[in-house]
Write a structure and sequence with these properties.
The structure is a single chain. Helix content is 33%, strand content 14%. By secondary structure, the protein is α/β, with parallel strands linked by helices. Strands 3-4-5-6-7-8 form a six-stranded parallel sheet. It has a two-stranded antiparallel sheet with strand order 1-2.
Length: 214
């Protein structure tokens, strides 16, 4: 059992300081990931849930400077059709089976370059195996993998070939992992721990107000 305090977004506030900008519109919040493979004007992405992101949401996110992550709960043919409807950069999701690697190959063949390996608990041997296979198959692709909640988990995914780490377990508004399994770490502590890894971190879940993103 972890014998230390852990915190989430509601537990802290930032101290205001001097601001030299005349308008909030002048503030640059763009980012490039540490691997240099992804640049966003707005560092926000939509969830790859089947009720959230298909091509319409992905295109909306792109229009605002963010990025969408297409869900994988559809046939490969429909997945390709949805990908082709996307007008800008978009992540496509894959699971951890041979069939899902076939999905990745099929999507790569039609131009996909950004991939997300997405499982509830990614600090696992089978996830690492899939990640290594995907990296070998697509050496130049940008691969995001998750979810993990600790530095050890993030470092494991990085060592297996992930460019970007998705952090957070059970923090989403409709996520039941933490409730059903009893596993999880409060989101802000999770981010702090995972950020010790030499990869860019995507905070997945637990964001309920704009201030949480800041």
């Amino acid at each position: 059992m972890m014998q230390q305090y852990a915190i989430t977004f509601d537990d802290i506030l930032m101290v205001p300081s001097y601001n030299h900008y005349e308008s909030r519109r002048l503030v640059d919040i763009s980012m490039t990931d540490k691997a240099g493979k992804l640049t966003l004007k707005l560092p926000v992405m939509s969830s790859n849930m089947d009720t959230v992101t298909e091509s319409a949401m992905a295109n909306f996110m792109s229009s605002k400077g963010g990025i969408g992550v297409l869900h994988r709960f559809m046939s490969i043919e429909n997945n390709i059709a949805e990908f082709k409807k996307c007008v800008d950069t978009v992540f496509v999701s894959v699971g951890c089976t041979d069939a899902e690697l076939e999905r990745a190959k099929a999507l790569s063949d039609v131009g996909a370059h950004y991939f997300c390996i997405d499982v509830a608990h990614a600090h696992a041997k089978y996830v690492g195996h899939t990640l290594k296979q995907l990296r070998k198959m697509l050496p130049n692709a940008c691969i995001m993998a998750g979810n993990v909640a600790t530095y050890a988990g993030a470092d494991y995914l990085a060592s297996c070939g992930a460019d970007i780490i998705k952090a957070g377990i059970g923090g989403g508004s409709v996520c039941s992992t933490r409730i059903k399994t009893g596993f999880g770490i409060p989101m802000l502590t999770c981010i702090q721990d995972c950020a010790r890894c030499d990869r860019s971190i995507v905070a997945d879940g637990g964001i309920r107000a704009p201030g949480d993103i800041v």
